[in-house]
Amino acid sequence: MAKIPTSEGQIPFEIPGKNNVPCSTYYKVFGDLSSGVPAVVVLHGGPGGGHEYLLSFAELWRQYGFPVVFYDQIGCGASTHLTQTAGDTGFWQESLFIAELNNLLDYLKLRDGPGFHLLGQSWGGLLGAAFAASRPRGLQRLVLASALASMELSVQSIQLRRSELPIDVQGVLDKCEREADYESPAYREALTVFHKMFVCRANPVPAELTLSFQHLSEDRTVYGTMYGPTVFNCNGSLRTWTSIPRLPQITAPTLVYNGEYDTSHDIGQEPFFQFIPRVRWITFQGGSHMCHLDGGGLRERVLKVVGEFLMQHKAVEKAVT
User: Fold this and answer.
1) Cα–Cα distance measured from residue 294 to residue 304, given in angstroms and rounded to the nearest whole number
2) Is there a cis peptide before residue 204, judged by omega within 30 degrees of 0?
3) How many Cβ atoms are within 10 Å of 302's Cβ, its own excluded?
4) CA separation for the pair 125, 118 (Å, rounded)
């Protein structure tokens, strides 16, 4: 099997209004950006989870010929960390990540020629929807993977899943949250049950997902400020976030997908399907929030669905020419 060509580096990033803070964005490319094929830019979740748990999408180069660009968003992974901004909800806003994404696209010169596709997973899907609604030059197709149309629907989705937990596990969560005890072994064990049922059903947990959990635990700045202390308590800067009024502005053909047991419940997908003009929605049976990592053939099926959706751009381009 031929080795996939890769390249990586750091992109200087000047934070709007923070010119005195030198920052950079780590990126890694699988495939050849000069191939004449739109690159797939992958937006990870968290916020603050890092790119590694999405590396299975690098297969889009080997199987479909799409170069794939991964990057760690500001504040996590191999990009600049800003622990001094913990709790600064005015700083940690959607606009910061939009500016970083624009900077990456410009640095890698992805807007011109064949353009680019965007794949956003979880929080990355929230970011992707907001970015696509601005109709950026060069965007060809959009994939919203286990995303959510608003944080209100995110909270409702998670509560619906929580209600499906065993009663004793719900009791542990309730007790620990009343006491604001988020670090006890009992609370962590209850979270593990939640994760195994709804976040990733693969057994054992894939190493690449463990690494993302490690990013989130080692530096809580981004997640803690934007989301909150736990998945069940959204009190950060994202708490009132919504993309719903902007969805009709998305002109790129869009694939929406989630899993049958996803924390991104169907109620969080419905506005995408209702308001994005050109959209397809698939729910993967037996899938979790990490369908692309689940077993039982799900990993392969997700890659096939995404790859074939992106390939439709080539078919349209050929028909037009």
Assistant:
1) 14
2) yes
3) 23
4) 9
* pTM for the whole structure: 0.95
| Pairing outcome for strands 68-71 and 39-43 | parallel
What does the pLDDT look like over 148-168, one tens digit per residue? 999 999 999 999 999 999 999
**How far apart (Å, rounded) are the C-alpha atoms in residues 172 and 188?**
10
**Residue 127 token pair:** 């970011």
| Rounded-to-integer distance, Cα 55 and Cα 192, Å | 23
* pLDDT (tens digit per residue) in 108-153: 999 999 999 999 999 999 999 999 999 999 999 999 999 999 999 9
Main-chain phi, psi angles of 130, to 5 degrees: -65, -40
Compute the distance between CA of residue 36 and CA of residue 194 in angstroms, rounded to an integer.
43
Nearest to 97 by CA among 53, 39, 43, 133: 43
pLDDT of 319: 44
Active site positions, annotated: 122, 262, 289
User: Comparing C-alpha atoms, which of 152, 15, 4 is closest to residue 97?
Assistant: 15
Q: Which residues of 143-163 are buried (b: 16+ CB within 10 A; e: fewer)?
A: bbbbbbbbbbbbbebbeebbe
**DSSP-based three-state secondary structure for 70:** strand
Do 145 and 118 form a contact (C-beta atoms < 8 A)? no
Integer Cα distance of 23 and 11 in angstroms:
8
